[in-house]
Amino acid sequence: MINYNRLGYEIKRDSTNFSIKISQKLKHPQQKFVHQIVYCILTENKLHLSKSARSLKENITLKKTIDQLSRNLNAFDEKQTVMQDYLSLVKQHTTEDCAVIAIDNSVIANPASRKLEALFQIRDGSTGEITQGYLTIEVAVLSESGKMPLPVYKKVFSAAEEGFVCETYENLCFLLSLSENFSPKCVRTLDRGFDTNDYNRYFLIRGEHFVICAKKNRNVIYNGKTCNIMDVALKHKGAYRMDFKDKSGKNVQCKMSCIPVRLCEFQTKNWC
Fold first, then answer.
1. Spatial distance between the Cα atoms of 210 and 187, rounded to a whole number of angstroms
2. pLDDT reported for residue 267
3. Sheet holding 219-222, edge to edge
4. Which of 218, 186, 216 is nearest to 200 (CA)?
5. How far separated are the first and last CA of the chain, in Å rounded?
6. Which class for 129: exposed (0-12), middle (13-18), buried (19 or more C-beta within 10 A)?
7. Residues 6 or more apart whose Cβ sits within 8 Å of residue 171
């Protein structure tokens, strides 16, 4: 039988300890605010200030609690300090020299919204339709035990925002953040949306380990000749086999090979 009182106590204790660790360099009022926000997110699983205010159950009116949280949030300028303390915690649960960093670009579609700020046209990957919404970047590091994803970077942005440069610029910003906080030996894994010369150049210049799902129209240099990457792949049956289950639960056998090739634009560097 589950002791829910005990479970609730342990969750509250762990959230308090976590809040203290990521805000230990802040002043006491800021530490209290961080603890309140973390607790609200855990209890309500939402970021609405009204929901957060209700979960605190303070002995003041709900409006005053909302105003107080709003003022503290607007005045909070210690994001980098909290983030550095959080990254220090993440590194305690990862292998510094060979951690896997999962990187994914996605979208938040809001086709029916009329009031949200900076809405812009995006392509919804789940439906393939052009709608309105926001672009997102999510980065997580796999923990050493359990291979649990530990988030280390997340951003929501829009091309309609003031000061927006381009999506490539936003991606290079988070790659720079990874370079500053993680070893070049940590393997960056990215989907085919990152198969461009800008990102290849970034990794190769810094000597960082990376895996990118290549596009079918990618040309490479194999045995001194320029070939389409699919033609090179089809010449090899696969020296290694990996069994896994797809989204529908069906068992799938995947054969793989490691073939040394060179990128046409970076002929002095190997890309396997």
1. 5
2. 62
3. 225-228, 219-222, 261-263, 266-271
4. 218
5. 53
6. exposed
7. 105, 137, 194, 199
Comparing CA positions, the residue from 219, 222, 186, 5 lying closest to residue 98 is 186
How many CB atoms lie under 10 A from the CB of residue 144? 14
- Quick: pLDDT tens for 177-224: 999 999 999 999 999 889 998 999 999 889 999 999 989 999 999 988
pLDDT at 229 exceeding the cut of 70: yes
Among 221, 230, 218, smallest CA distance to 270 is for 221
Q: Which residues contact 233 (CB under 8 A, 6 or more apart)?
A: 257, 259
Q: Report in angstroms the alpha-carbon separations of 11 from 18, 120, 147, 230.
A: 10, 39, 21, 50
Residues 6+ apart with CB under 8 A from 216: 228, 229, 230
Alpha-carbon distance of 120 to 110, in angstroms, equals 10
Q: Which two tokens stand for residue 88?
A: 């220090």
Residue 56, CA atoms < 13 Å, CB-side half-sphere? 24
Distances in Å between the Cα of 237 and the Cα atoms of 179, 233, 240, 245, 252 are: 36, 8, 9, 21, 16
Helix residue spans in the chain (DSSP H): 4-22, 28-44, 49-56, 62-75, 79-91, 167-181, 197-206, 229-234
Helices 28-44 and 49-56: crossing angle, nearest 10°?
100
Alpha-carbon gap, residue 29 to 73, rounded angstroms: 12
**Residue with tokens 């949280």, as numbered in its chain:** 69
Partners of 243 in the beta sheet?
Answer: 253
